[in-house]
Amino acid sequence: MLSGFIEALQKVGGQAREIETVQQAAAYIADRVKGSVLLPEQSSLDRAGLAKALDAAGLEVIRNGWRERSADAEGGVTRVNFALADTGTLVLDSTEEALRLTTTLPEKHFALLDPGKLVADSLAAVPYLRDFHARSPRNYLAYITGPSRTADIERVLTIGVHGPRELHVLLLPGLSDDFFEI
Amino acid sequence: MNKQRNRDYRNRIEKALATPRLQQALHNFGDAYVVARQNAFAGLDFEAMRTEIGTMKDRVRENRQDLLAEFTRNAEAAGAKVFMARTAADANRYIAELAKQQGVKTVVKSKSMASEETHLNQALEAAGVDSLETDLGEWIIQLAGQRPSHMVMPAIHMFRDEVAELFSKVTGQAESDDIPHLVQVARERLRQGYFDADMGISGANMAIAETGGIALVTNEGNARLATTLPKIHVALVGLEKLVPTLEDATNIIRVLPRNATGQLLTSYVTWIRGAVPCGDGDKELHIVLLDNGRSALAESPHCKQALNCIKCGACANVCPVYQTVGGHVFGHIYISAIGVILTAFYHGLDKAAELVRACIGCRACVAVCPSNIDLESIILHLREVVGEEEGVGAGKSLVFKRIMRNRKLFHGMLRAASLLQKPVTRGERTIRHLPLFFSGLTEWRTLPAIADKPLRDQWRSIPQKVDKPRYRVAFFAGCLNDFVYPELGQDLVKVLNHLDVEVSLPLNQNCCGVPALYSGDRETAVALAEQNIAAMLDEDPDFVVTTCPTCTMALQRDFQDLLGDNPVWAEKARQLSERTLDVARFIAEKLDGSNKFGVPAEPERVTYHDSCHLKRGAGVWQQPRDLLAGSGRELVEMQHSDRCCGFGGSYSFTSHPDIAKRILGDKIEDIEATTADCVAMDCPGCMMQIRGGLEKQEKAVRVAHTIELLAESLAEKTDFGER
């Protein structure tokens, strides 16, 4: 499933990188971002020590004041709840507003996914979707498949309209096996 | 008929036809779409998927009250306010008043066809609220002061230079027409809007009863911003967007992007339930459920299926009329085939009255509809309704009611016409020019003359030699075969006799009724159906064969539709339907006849044109190819072989000859590109159209019915034997 996921993601203009440590994640991000990144509180990423690694890699890590500061950040960093292999889709519980801002406003979205959390397709995702609805009374769930795109002018495909221009998926085993963990 | 309305409509057609780059763009799009869609469905069973969606949507329609209650209960439990808007005005009033109460100055909108339907922007403007469209296409047309010309790609009719001009006015500096640059301009100009706006307005692709949530299927990311940053979110949702469960919603998501744009999935699918966190507090979520004619549509026995539409826009993408004139002609707010129907119910019959006639009836849309809607049949029904409301036109009415229903009179007049046309035909089989005010009819195609002796008058003298017939079949010739192309009937006899089949021509058969039905005169169509059923079943034939697929559809489908509720005729209509086959299928499947014709020494290169009603009505396209290949022809496929030739009966004579001419032009280009010597087909109407166009343009390609080619094979074989 993993190779299928990577292939599907690349087909829609996303990038995938298999890594082993959060330091590698931080280095990958630091290579592509100047200045600051948005990193909302997310237990899986905090447990792995990502904020510290990003800081060590020389990036300013913004962890609050989203609305005011999001415009300055070139990148946003999130975990992924799970992913759909056949379409290369990331599923993110984005009920927390910070998650939504992090995945919509910056030009580059870096998403950390535990490759153990892949399901075959959108039909296989339905039980999880239902579970999200059962766990929380209000939900904002996002399927993200590649970067933002448009073909509204002369049907010419153009990447990056209102949302991120780049989507990088960092596959980090052992990050979290819990489909519902933020 | 409303004369001013018709004049305005004609003007719009003329203007669109004078914009070649629009046609070019829509043709290119149509071509690219077909390929992208095919790739997107690779390995999937589209027929099964659309059956599932259609069935689910039928269920939703029937149980809509329960589902609506369930949705409302769950949405309210999650903190949303749900308002049921009976009309467009009710919806607009609710939203405008909400904006006023909350002191909203500006709203950002993501794409919503429902808001186009209600003219929400104008209503907000009247209430002193600015609205900013953030979908790129919607922003472009908002700046241009236009309406969408496509449901998925609203600005598909505009070009980069026009967009650059619009954007230059916004930025106050000259913007280049480089597309990535223009997209960047939109990104930068619209970004602050999300922060400044006090309200975000979206539509929804689904409203899920199980959760009380909505789902948005988008690509640009603007809907995510518009539903996140402003304090208030209003979702304007047509009632037809209700689905029972998350599985049902997922089934739609699996089909919608694939069928709309050829994407496996859009960049974003956003599931929103309830008042989610926003800034320091919670968002205020209002869900405005829009009826505005939907309940009436759900109750309409003939049209209700249209409510199953998931708004993918595919019916436009494949429509030859749309590709020729665009959505500003073939549409009102909603465009193309589904648009014709929705316009009638959401905006009134008057707004749809011209559009119901603009459909050429090729069924290309029906073949790709992801909700399995028989769009053509519904449009035909609406044409009847308009015909009843406004009349079908005095001339037509006279012909249908007084003449066609009386077979002897009708056929007598055709015979008289064959004599009267002599000064024009000068004894030729082809009319190249017509005098005076008829001249327009032969401006872009020649027309065949009416035969000296119709098939029915020749029938007794056509020899039939079948010792032990396998089958006795009755031939339904149809008007063109009978009165214009009688030689085709002779060939049919030769070919079927060769395969040990005896053919009869029941003389009481009349016009199949399609011209009347397609013009909105149902009463005449019913009368003709009864006459024809009686005539064709009279001798209790094993099969009824046809050479015209439109007649095939009439006998197989329309007669049953017309008489299904009539206790005297329903059973007979069913019997006739069961026995009726187009002749290609009959030969290939009932007679196993593909290899029973000789192979010529020098095979002709033949390309095959799929007639609309044969391929998408009767489901026949491989059989004639097998017959042609089996008889030694070298088959060369043309591009768009199953695209309409532009005939459409009275469509190309009286209702839309200007559009028909363009569609024929496309077909001739495709035929020529194959460099074939002959174009074969199985429809006398297509023959008339395509031969007429090729002759007028003095092309060397000959036009033949498959049966004529098979008869030629037999003739060649005989020649060989005599030598």
Oligomeric state of this protein: heterodimer
Q: What sort of overall outline of chain B do the alpha carbons produce when their principal axes are compared?
A: elongated
Biggest sheet, spatial arrangement of strands of chain B = 1-12-7-4-2-3
The value of Rg of chain A in angstroms is 15 Å
> Mind summarizing the main beta sheet of chain B?
6 strands, parallel
Number of strands of chain A: 12
What composes the largest sheet of chain A? 6 strands, parallel
- As a percent range, the share of helical residues of chain B equals 40-55%
Query: Strand fraction band of chain A?
Result: 25-35%
Give the helix proportion of chain A (percent range): 25-40%
Uncertain parts of chain B: 718-723
N-end to C-end Cα span of chain A:
23 Å
> Can you write the helix and strand succession of chain A as a string?
HEHEHHEHEEEHEEHEEEE
Give the integer mean of the pLDDT values of chain B.
Answer: 94
Largest interface: A-B, 49 and 66 residues
User: So how many helices of chain B?
Assistant: 37
Global Rg of chain B: 28 Å
For the secondary structure, the number of strands of chain B is 22
Mean pLDDT reading of chain A: 96
Low confidence ranges of chain A: none
Taken from the alpha-carbon principal axes, the silhouette of chain A is: globular
What does this 3D model show about the protein?
The complex is a heterodimer of chains A (182) and B (723). In chain A, α2 packs across α4. Chain A has 7 helices and 12 strands. The longest helix of chain A is centred in the last third of the chain and has 14 residues. Chain A is an alpha/beta fold. The mean pLDDT of chain A is 96. In chain A, the strands form 3 sheets. A 6-stranded parallel sheet of chain A has the order 1-12-7-4-2-3, sandwiched between helices. Chain A has a 4-stranded mixed sheet with strand order 8-5-6-9. Chain A has a two-stranded antiparallel sheet with strand order 10-11. Chain A is 33% helix and 26% strand. Chain A is globular and about 40 Å long. With 723 residues, chain B is an alpha/beta fold. Helix content of chain B is 53%, strand content 12%. Chain B has 37 helices and 22 strands. In chain B, strands 1-12-7-4-2-3 form a 6-stranded parallel sheet, with helices on both faces. A 4-stranded mixed sheet of chain B has the order 8-5-6-9, sandwiched between helices. In chain B, strands 16-15-17-18 form a 4-stranded parallel sheet. In chain B, α36 links the parallel β21 and β22. In chain B, α9 packs across α10. Chain B is elongated, with a radius of gyration of 28 Å. The termini of chain B are far apart. In chain B, 56% of the residues are buried. The C terminus of chain B is likely disordered. Classes of the chains: A alpha/beta (182), B alpha/beta (723).
